[in-house]
Amino acid sequence: MARPRHEQPTPAELEILKVFWDREDPATVREIFEVINQNLDDDQSPRAYTSVMSLLNVMADKGLLRRSPQGRAFVYEPVAPREQTLSSLLGETLKRVYEGSASLLVAHLLDQSKPSDDELAQIRSLLDAYQNQDASQADRTPESEGDPGCRSSRSKD
Q1: What gap in Å lies between CA 90 and CA 83, rounded to an integer?
Q2: Looking at residue 31, what is its pLDDT?
Q3: Which CATH code for domain 11-78?
Q4: How many Å is the Cα radius of gyration of the chain?
Q5: Which has the closest alpha carbon to 74: 32, 135, 127, 115?
Q6: Whole-model pTM above 0.85?
Q7: Number of helices (H) and strands (E), helices first, in the chain?
């Protein structure tokens, strides 16, 4: 039985995307291979060149990477920027795991991350800014456009 195709990147694919996002330019298999093996934790074994090459090709087939010939090699680059990919991943997690409940997701996130007092202050500031932005948009949104509190129906900036 064939493995189901995932729209979202797997953990190994996300690791490679992070390398691209940090580089901010296209890269060859060799360049990605070297960075991946340079950044290993003590308990990780090095990846084979052919494994990295296969993963990049799968990612290109999935539409996560763009592949272009350059001489005798290919160069790869991400199709979507970091923020778009991470927003998509979080949106999927929110929908599939937390059934759309932002408060449940945040509660679990806080339990797992144990934020410092400074981080909690930053989170409060973000919530205040979000609430103020939401209120100002509600004042400008006609009732006929739907629930002003629903972010998914609004276009993203």
Answers
A1: 10
A2: 95
A3: 1.10.10.10
A4: 20
A5: 32
A6: no
A7: 6, 2
